[in-house]
User: Fold this.
Amino acid sequence: MSEPRIVLYLQRAGRRVFGWCEHLDEALRGTGVLAKSGGFILASRYSPDLLNLFCFVWGTSKLHDDRPFGHKYKSEREAQQAYDAICDCVRQVNASGVKRPDTIGGFARVV
Assistant:
């Protein structure tokens, strides 16, 4: 299997989804929309952030690469939908369809 183009660590706890980007192919940095799933958008713009329907990963500001992202949703159902959509978007970018079961402190490694 080739090296993944994007690697996120992601966790859902109740209505909250949070995590961080461990790796992003430099060719994708700052290019805008990377993938879409169920109305959710994974993108690379300026710096990592998680908003209602947008997950921003490493962008044009390398100073913010270590910044975690998180969002509190209105319900656990919405949080689970966002979590699942982010995972799906990452799999789309990596075009592997494989989610490794690795974890760090309860965070799932999504590739």
